[in-house]
Amino acid sequence: MNALKKLEAMPKRYLKEFYWKDYVTILFGLAFYALGLIGFIKPVGIVTGGLTGIALLVEYATEIPLQYTYFFTNCALLLVALKLLGFKFMVKTIFGVIVLTFLLTLCQEYIKEPIVKNEPLLSGVIGGMLCGTGIGLVFSANGSTGGTDIIVALINKYKNIAFGRGMLLCDFIIICSSYFLFYDYQKIVYALIVMGVMTYCIDIVINGFRQSIQILIFSEKYDIIADAINHELRRGCTVLDATGWYTKKPSKVIIVLAKRSEAIEMFRLIKSIDERAFISQSTVRGVYGEGFDKIKA
């Protein structure tokens, strides 16, 4: 209880800070995505996955600008994000949707012709690289572009899988459905190649598959840190007895198992409490039990 009171009395700097670096990263990621989509993918008639893929299909069929379909559909999906993913996720998602809608409109205004002409596959691959890199940057800052990203984020919340793999599952049906609009298998093949490039780039940017991590924390303020991890990050931890062999003094070690995406928030929290804390982070191949994967028999 004393540690909890100390925690409540401390200024929660890591919560009050405006993480401007995250928003700058999201902004750059969305700029890459908008350029790749409007400058390379859309002009050659390739359909991507996700809500933007659906918006592209709508534009190809009805000439309604894709940004309108993207924005108004997201308005409905954001209500789901607020309930299931929480307000913190919602803030960056709203930011992502508004900024991407603006960037798509801007790119549509100034890019009237394909940047790479007479090379549909090359144009699609370049666009896929830009879009995948952009989405990876957005995800690395715990942001979202809305649409099926919300669905993938929900899957990742309960299943420790790669974002790229989750996108693959959500996008395949959307791409294949483009056949009923174009009746052209070649465009589907191009779209699948683009999706593969995007998936690879996403996983590269966010450090491959999303392995779990193990963090060892050595600090004299171990009780405050442990309570903060429990109450602020909603993550369990274990405190072990230890002995510093150089000083021959007893100490405590906090062990935390978490998802890689939680590492940045964990470090920010620890630093706000004890800047002199000693931390060791390692990657683990599998973590099974409550909050992670089911135990495999």
Please provide a written account of the structure:
The protein has 297 residues and is of the alpha+beta class. The chain has 2 domains: 190 residues, no CATH class; 74 residues, 2-Layer Sandwich (Alpha-Beta Plaits), CATH 3.30.70.120. Helix content is 62%, strand content 11%. The chain contains 13 helices and 4 strands. It has a 4-stranded antiparallel beta sheet, with no helix packed on it. Helix 3 packs antiparallel against helix 7 and helix 7 packs parallel to helix 11. The mean pLDDT is 80.
Secondary structure: elements and pairs:
Layout: H1 2-9, H2 13-16, H3 20-41, H4 50-62, H5 66-84, H6 87-110, H7 120-140, H8 148-158, H9 163-176, H10 179-182, H11 185-205, E1 212-218, H12 222-232, E2 238-244, E3 249-259, H13 263-273, E4 278-284
Antiparallel strand pairs: 1-3, 1-4, 2-3
Read across the widest sheet, the strand sequence of neighbours is 2-3-1-4
Overall strand count: 4
Total tally of structural domains: 2
Strand portion, in percent?
A: 5-15%
Report the structural category: alpha+beta
The H-and-E topology, N to C, reads as HHHHHHHHHHHEHEEHE
Number of helices: 13
- Oligomerization state of this entry? single chain
* Biggest sheet architecture: 4 strands, antiparallel
Average pLDDT, to the nearest integer? 80
Helix content range: 55-70%
User: What would you call the shape?
Assistant: elongated
**What is the CA–CA distance across the termini?**
39 Å
- Low-confidence runs of at least 5 consecutive residues: none
Radius of gyration: 22 Å
